[in-house]
Design goal:
Layout: H1 15-33, H2 42-63, E1 70-72, E2 77-79, H3 81-100, H4 102-105, H5 114-133, H6 137-155, H7 162-193, H8 198-205, H9 212-229, H10 238-244, H11 247-271, H12 274-301, H13 306-325, H14 331-362, H15 373-376, H16 378-392, H17 398-411, H18 418-446, H19 461-479, H20 482-493
Antiparallel strand pairs: 1-2
């Protein structure tokens, strides 16, 4: 066995993790040692620090992307410009969530738990960093649990509401069971291959015969990650958790964790189970994607609570993201998935920004309460309309191009057969169904002539800033098509395989 010398200098390969750890330490020390009268500056400080970290990531990507290619801890941790770009995309979403949550975090209710919210959020983001950089299942599990368990505490932050308690219990039980299933699959994988390194597993499975234990192993791994992505039939926790959690936590849970889990799933399938996936699970994942998109759409039509509505919308969106996952790591498909995640961040956070502002001003969460909203709050109505148009994929907004690129990327994978064309066709038909229920919200705000339920109000400066950023992203990414081209060049230069 080759002995690999390891020392503390290997931590220097984890540039973005170190930067995030510095942000966490500053936030923790500020929350712990500064007096209560200074605590209201904590949300702004956290947002500024994360913005600096995001800008640094963009600068490194633009100036010297080759410096981001690092391997550490005997190959357990890998950083590439593509992985660094995804972490920067996640950071963009976190910055928007932090800006939108300033007013909520500074409320009297959050006075005693303000610091805990930001510290838990940063810990979960650190876990997601490890998930996408892991090339060994031990490190992946550490990242997975670091990203999952603190989220249960975040969901339960509103301890005076029964719905928050219920959501936290459902989330923690789901996380525990999915982790147990995932670990069961890993135990089978280790028993069959003798390693937890992705590359070693791939090599051991290449040319090996297929047996029942191998099938069960991959089924357990797919099921464990499927819970994190809210893939059907592992999605049943999603609506209840989204409804019960504070809106700022729901917005974070709906986009950031989903993007990290999707990319990590792509890496696992391509680098660890590529051969077995092609032989056994390709058709099963096709079925999983069709079910996820279709069931998410059909259940979204029935929802009146806006948070449950967006929960099933996110289930459907997870199915579209999976079109980039099943492409065997094709550079165009990987770039399309990353672009889709970025557009989804802007679109979904715009919708949650409006929902959060209305909830804090009036306590209203029903779609029926949005009737005539344009007459009382026209700016919020326009922001919500743009978010719905983007999520539905209506041109010329960013969501149209993200869907177009994800369909193109799925069809660009090597060895595409008739089944992939049928899958993309079914996904395309489902966009028509999604257009119907997204337009229900627009109809309620602009066309319904009922008496207005929500009175005119002025949202806070941080909420308005968050909405301006998200709206700019929805419109800007629909115009600046060169951004996808840059991602495509990046993924082609530094492919996953």
């Amino acid at each position: 066995m080759e002995i690999v010398n390891m020392d503390y200098t290997q931590f220097l390969a984890m540039k973005q993790e170190i930067g995030l750890l510095i942000v966490f330490i500053v936030v923790f020390l500020y929350d712990t040692f500064l007096p209560a009268k200074s605590q209201k500056a904590l949300p702004g400080l956290t947002a500024v620090l994360m913005l600096i970290l995001t800008v640094c990531g963009i600068v490194f990507e633009a100036v010297a992307p080759e410096t981001l290619s690092k391997t550490a801890f005997a190959g357990m941790y890998v950083s590439t410009p593509v992985i660094a770009a995804l972490k920067t995309i996640l950071n963009v979403g976190v910055v928007i969530v932090l800006i939108q949550s300033v007013n909520w975090a500074n409320s009297s209710f959050m006075a005693m738990r303000r610091g805990e919210f930001y510290e838990l959020l940063l810990v979960t983001l650190f876990g997601m960093y490890l998930m996408v950089s892991a090339r060994h299942f031990l490190l992946f599990v550490i990242g997975l649990e670091s990203a999952s368990l603190p989220l249960a505490a975040m969901v339960a932050l509103d301890k005076n509401r029964y719905e928050s308690h219920e959501a936290a219990v459902k989330y923690i039980l789901t996380a525990v069971f999915s982790s147990a299933i995932f670990m069961l699959g890993l135990s089978f994988v280790y028993g069959l291959t003798g390693s937890l390194y992705f590359n070693d597993i791939y090599a051991a499975l290449t040319g090996a015969g297929v047996n029942m234990m191998l099938i069960v192993a991959l089924a357990a791994v797919v099921s464990g990650v499927g819970f994190k992505l809210s893939l059907v039939p592992f999605h049943l926790w999603t609506a209840d958790v989204y409804q019960g959690a504070p809106t700022s936590v729901t917005s974070y849970l709906s986009v950031i964790s989903k993007g990290a889990a999707a990319f990590a799933f792509l890496v696992i399938l391509v680098q660890a189970f590529g051969m077995l996936y092609a032989q056994l699970w390709e058709w099963m994942l096709y079925a999983l994607i069709i079910l996820t998109i279709t069931v998410g759409n059909l259940f979204a039509i029935r929802q009146k609570n806006m948070k449950r509505f967006l929960a099933f919308s996110s289930v459907s969106q997870a199915g579209y993201i999976m079109l980039g996952v099943i492409s065997d790591g094709a550079p165009v498909a990987t770039a399309a998935m990353m672009f889709y995640i970025l557009v989804y961040i802007f679109s979904n956070l715009a919708a949650f920004g409006v929902i959060g502002a209305i909830e804090r001003a009036s306590g209203k969460l029903s779609m029926d309460d949005y009737r005539g909203l344009y007459r009382t709050n026209p700016r919020l109505s326009v922001a919500m309309m743009l978010a719905m148009f983007s999520l539905a994929g209506i041109p010329p907004f960013a969501g149209f191009f993200s869907k177009f690129f994800i369909f193109t990327g799925a069809l660009s994978a090597p060895g595409v057969g008739t089944a992939m064309y049928v899958l993309v066709l079914i996904a395309l038909i489902n966009t028509i169904v999604s257009l119907y229920y997204y337009l229900l919200v627009v109809k309620a705000m602009f066309i319904a002539d009922d008496q207005c339920v929500i009175e005119p109000f002025r949202s806070s400066a941080s909420e308005r800033l968050g909405l301006w950023i998200t709206v700019a992203g929805i419109i800007g990414l629909g115009i600046a098509s060169w951004f996808f081209s840059e991602l495509n060049v990046l993924t082609a230069t530094y492919p996953l395989i």
